[in-house]
């Protein structure tokens, strides 16, 4: 888990910038006929045809968004792609291309970048996206990684945050809170390790939540499933900052309120047991944890029968009129106002 200091090291200066880019990108192949020109010219060329183009970017900074003492570089590369694809799928679009820009200090050898690109490539192969370009530069300190994803959708298929209507059901895929708890476990083990490097952690009880933190998957399967079920969500968003702040985005942009039910929130047993161990409230974690990369969406109540009982989907509440506010109904049947305790970079 923790950084291996005995690897082979090749200084980046041995390759030079062009040699480096060539070396890192040579094993990538293209899947889409819309990719006309990828890495190698001044810019990439995409054939956009008659569809709409969906574009999204995320910037990740060492020490702010990731900690390389427990985040292996291959996982970082994979996750950085997932974060972007998740946004494309949340628009109900198909992801087709990515660009990858990196800034790196000379503390990183070539082998570190090979690991990073191995993760990026695994993500590209698994999710069928083409790496079409990027930029490479040096930084005075640490690593910065910025990925842009480009997708395509028919105009009538794009789903915005703004389409929810009163009486619509609020639905979430998968389960919530795991990624945040995985991070808490990794942070704790890092501190134990710093005190005593001989102490190798036993993480068997936390495999699911650690995987949720280190190797999240974007829910490409959910828009596909909904299409099969003949359900078109009225609004959709991906959960990067926590359920609470995401449902608030939907309500604000749709000019509605909502009522969520505590007892309906989907929690993995490992989330529940780890919350007990850390003495934190599982509902708080589900509402504010973040980084789950599940999809949150609303559907017409007429579509309820089509999704009922599906193991990938949980109905967690419904949309109300705006003047009713945004509330959580607790197990004790009390209504409390939702707060956006999103897990963002500016916190604390
Ligand atoms: P320019 O000087 O015109 O910006 P670069 O030398 O930066 O060109 O890039 C040359 C080619 O390599 C371009 O196609 C660019 O998109 C691609 N590229 C540069 N850096 C990366 C990277 N980190 N990952 C993938 N492709 C890259
Ligand atoms: Mg450049």
Topology:
Blueprint: H1 16-25, E1 35-37, E2 45-46, E3 52-61, H2 73-90, E4 94-104, H3 110-127, E5 130-138, E6 144-153, E7 169-173, H4 178-195, H5 207-214, H6 221-228, E8 235-238, H7 243-254, E9 256-261, H8 269-278, H9 282-288, E10 295-299, H10 304-307, E11 313-321, E12 326-329, E13 335-337
Parallel strand pairs: 4-5, 9-12
Antiparallel strand pairs: 1-2, 3-6, 4-6, 7-10, 7-11, 8-10, 9-11, 12-13
This protein binds adenosine-5'-diphosphate and magnesium ion (MG).
Adenosine-5'-diphosphate (ADP) binds at residues 21, 25, 39-42, 100, 102, 131, 133-136.
Give a verbal description of the structure.
Strand 1 and strand 2 form a beta hairpin. This protein folds into 2 domains: 142 residues, 60s Ribosomal Protein L30, Chain: A; 169 residues, Phosphoribosyl-aminoimidazole Synthetase, Chain A, domain 2, CATH 3.90.650. The longest helix is centred in the first third of the chain and has 18 residues. The two termini are 27 Å apart. Helix 2 packs parallel to helix 3 and helix 4 packs across helix 5. The chain is built from 10 helices and 13 strands. The protein is an alpha+beta fold and 348 residues long. The strands form 3 sheets. A 7-stranded mixed beta sheet has the order 8-10-7-11-9-12-13, sandwiched between helices. A 4-stranded mixed beta sheet has the order 3-6-4-5. 32% of the residues lie in helices and 23% in strands. It binds adenosine-5'-diphosphate (ADP) and magnesium ion.
């Amino acid at each position: 888990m923790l950084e291996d200091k005995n690897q082979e090291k090749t200084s980046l200066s041995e390759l030079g910038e062009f040699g480096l880019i060539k070396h890192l990108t040579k094993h990538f192949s293209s899947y889409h006929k819309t990719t006309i020109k990828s890495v190698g010219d001044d810019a990439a060329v995409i054939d956009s045809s008659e569809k709409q183009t969906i574009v999204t970017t995320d910037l990740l900074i060492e020490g702010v968004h990731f900690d390389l003492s427990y985040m292996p570089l291959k996982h970082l590369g994979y996750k950085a792609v997932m974060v972007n694809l998740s946004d494309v799928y949340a628009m109900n679009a198909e992801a087709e291309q990515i660009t990858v820009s990196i800034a790196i200090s000379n503390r990183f050898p070539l082998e570190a970048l090979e690991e990073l690109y191995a993760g990026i490539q695994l993500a590209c192969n698994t999710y069928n996206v083409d790496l079409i370009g990027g930029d490479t530069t040096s930084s005075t300190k640490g690593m910065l990684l910025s990925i842009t994803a480009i997708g395509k959708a028919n105009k009538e298929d794009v789903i915005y945050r703004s389409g929810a209507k009163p009486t619509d059901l609020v639905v979430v895929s998968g389960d919530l809170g795991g990624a945040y708890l995985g991070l808490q476990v990794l942070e704790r083990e890092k501190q134990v390790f710093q005190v005593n490097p001989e102490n190798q952690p036993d993480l068997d009880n936390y495999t699911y939540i650690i995987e949720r933190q280190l190797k999240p998957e974007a829910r490409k399967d959910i828009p596909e499933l909904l299409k099969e079920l003949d359900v078109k969500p009225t609004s959709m968003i991906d959960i990067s900052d926590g359920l609470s702040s995401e449902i608030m985005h939907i309500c604000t942009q749709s000019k509605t309120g909502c009522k969520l039910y505590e007892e309906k929130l989907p929690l993995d047993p490992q989330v529940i047991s780890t919350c007990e161990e850390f003495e934190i409230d599982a509902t708080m974690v589900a509402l504010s944890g973040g980084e789950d990369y599940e999809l949150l969406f609303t559907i017409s109540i007429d579509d309820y029968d089509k999704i009922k009982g599906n193991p990938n989907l949980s109905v967690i509440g419904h949309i109300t009129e705006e003047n009713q506010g945004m509330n959580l109904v607790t197990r004790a049947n009390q209504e409390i106002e939702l707060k956006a305790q999103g897990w963002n970079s500016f916190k604390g």
